[in-house]
Amino acid sequence: ELQVVEFGGGSVQPGGSLRLSCVASGFAFSMSWMYWVRQAPGKGLEWVSSINSGGSSIHYADSVKGRFTISRDNAKNTVYLQMNGLEAEDNSVYYCVAELALFPVWGQGTQVTVAS
Q: Could you count the other beta carbons within 10 Å of the beta carbon of residue 75?
């Protein structure tokens, strides 16, 4: 079964940090671009970050640049999102997405809540 599963969401105070993990299975993870996408309450999907198969090409949305870091461990079939300096605007459900040849594979999402 093709799947990605996110871990690591939770509640944190403004300025705090969280690390999200996404574990993939059922496909060639080491050959796949991986993405983090988020959705805030009442809003549409927002692309957050992406990383190529080897980790040499990384991109961030302007809204998270300098605060979030994406990385991957192909030996563990896992992609990470280190989130520092969290702000109220980062309140969202965070989804991990794998770009496969024919279609994307989405995780179920993990909630990140930033509140004092």
A: 8
User: Residue 51 above 90 pLDDT?
Assistant: yes
Q: 3-class DSSP state for residue 52?
A: coil
Token pair recorded at residue 100: 């496969």
Beta pairing, strands 110-114 & 10-12: parallel
Residue 100 CA neighbour count, 13 Å, CB half: 15
* Best CA proximity match to 90, nearest among 9, 23, 34, 6: 9
Around 13, how many Cα atoms within 13 Å sit in the side-chain half-sphere?
1
Amino acid residing at 85: G
92-106 pLDDT, tens digit each: 999 999 999 889 999
Q: Give the torsion sign (CA, 18, 24, 28, 32).
A: negative
